[in-house]
Design brief:
Oligomer: single chain
Radius of gyration: 25 Å
Distance between the termini: 52 Å
CATH class of the largest domain: Mainly Beta
Structural class: mainly beta
Shape: globular
Helix content: under 10%
Length: 445
């Protein structure tokens, strides 16, 4: 029969279908999407974080975080809307036991709802609707869908959004479906994207008046037609370049390649190296000069989904000056799962630096485990915990008596890592968690 949603009548569901979805009440919280096709331009909404979901970049996610509301606002742009979208989160990017927002169309009407999938990947409407639809509008570039989700909903079927990595999953509905239950999640084009949804709320410091910039990009690289490429490019600082402080850096990505540039780093070479030959090419070929292996001191690192990085006002990362190398190495990781051919790229990193040195030199401390056979995971383990300690003997020698101030942290493992935590201990007791990620992936650092 006809059920009324607010003041507008809902489309008539066949009673049998409704009963199978959840008693007849389900029609009440099926939000009917009336997409105004006359195309009002989106009000400029501040979504500071942006990432492509799929390798072609047909789905583009932007989001913002409200800590007072403890909620995330999502905006998905569907450049080719087709018949709907699955979007959500799961423990490690699986489509089983996932928490999903679903937009679907039966060819006449469009519907939006909060759903979950069971261990077989079958979708079910959630009895508690926690993905809240805020709006949808058609624009020249595609369909914008706006919705919001609280970090934690107290719904056992919902994913808890917490610090660290979040595995986002997406699926594209290419045919109309008569109901949510009719969607076969294993048959739709689908994939996953890893992001850090909860960005730290760090205020942006003022840049000094004498800030200069240096653009470090590998010019006109033809991205190889293979899934993974690490591209190396060498850069030379000017002769007698005095000591400067890097105060900020940001990614510079060639338009259209946002889905291909996975991460980028700028390294400084070891001071002992007299000369480093010029090189632009894959990092893993025989052609690469051996000297580049001694260019490992990190000056800047960016990964997909990240914003510009600012040093705190009182510190900067030193480069240049006597006793430091004039040679830098840019490394760009291209992730090209569709094996696209002939794509040209000139992406890289822009450094912002100043000659007015700040009070403190920032440094990068690497801690955890050295690579040894002792770290081997015994066979047959479902999970295995490895711990590395930076002991008081070590910190006493390496750190100044007044100690250090930690203002940023990045976790790192190789392919077997699934969770990482860094803990600060004093007098043998754990005092603070510096950084933790319970959904960690080595593919997104």
């Amino acid at each position: 029969g006809m059920q009324r949603c607010g003041s507008a009548p809902c489309p008539g569901f066949r009673m049998r279908e409704v009963a199978s979805m959840y008693l007849s009440t389900v029609a009440v919280f099926l939000v009917v999407l009336v997409v105004a096709l006359q195309g009002t331009a989106p009000r400029e909404s501040p979504f500071p974080y942006k990432v492509p979901l799929d390798p072609q970049g047909l789905l583009e996610l932007s989001w913002n975080v409200s800590y007072p509301l403890r909620a995330v606002h999502f905006q998905v742009l569907l450049k080719e809307p087709k018949f709907g979208l699955l979007f959500g989160m799961s423990d490690r990017g699986e489509f089983e036991n996932a928490d999903l927002a679903v937009l679907w169309s039966d060819g006449r009407n469009s519907y939006f709802g909060d759903a979950w999938s069971d261990e077989k990947g079958q979708l079910h409407m959630d009895s508690q609707q926690d993905y809240e639809l805020l709006g949808a509008h058609q624009a020249p570039e595609g369909l914008y869908l706006l919705f919001r989700r609280a970090f934690s909903t107290c719904d056992p079927k919902d994913y808890v959004i917490e610090d660290g990595t979040v595995h986002l999953i997406y699926g594209i509905l290419e045919q109309p479906v008569r109901s949510l239950l009719a969607i076969n999640t294993s048959a739709v084009p689908r994939g996953l994207q890893r992001v850090q949804l909860l960005k730290p709320n760090v205020s942006v410091p003022e840049l000094p008046a004498d800030t200069r910039t240096m653009l470090i990009t590998a010019p006109d690289v033809v991205i190889p037609s293979q899934e993974t490429t690490y591209w190396c490019y060498t850069v030379e600082l000017p002769e007698n370049f005095p000591k400067h402080h890097i105060v900020m850096y940001e990614p510079v990505i060639t338009a259209g390649n946002e889905a291909l540039v996975h991460h980028m780093e700028v390294f400084q070479c070891a001071a002992e190296l007299r000369r480093v030959p010029r090189y632009s090419g894959p990092c893993d070929t025989k052609m690469k000069p051996a000297q580049l292996n001694a260019c490992r001191h990190v000056l800047a690192a960016w990964a997909m989904g990240a914003q510009a990085f600012y040093y705190p006002e009182e510190a900067g990362l030193a480069f240049g000056g006597p006793g430091s190398s004039r040679y830098l190495r840019l490394e760009v990781h291209y992730h090209n799962p569709l094996v696209l051919q002939g794509r040209r790229d000139s992406s890289g990193i822009r450094l912002y630096y100043t000659g007015s040195l700040r009070r403190y030199d920032a440094g990068i401390l690497e801690l955890g485990l050295v690579y040894t056979p002792v770290m081997a995971i015994p066979p047959g383990e479902a999970e295995f915990l490895l711990s590395g300690y930076c002991t008081d003997k070590c910190t006493e020698l390496a750190l100044p008596p007044a100690g250090i101030r930690i203002f940023a942290s990045q976790l790192h493992t190789h392919l077997a890592g699934t969770r990482v935590v860094t803990v600060l201990a004093r007098e043998g007791r754990a005092r603070r968690v510096v950084n933790a990620d319970t959904h960690y992936s080595p593919h997104f650092q």
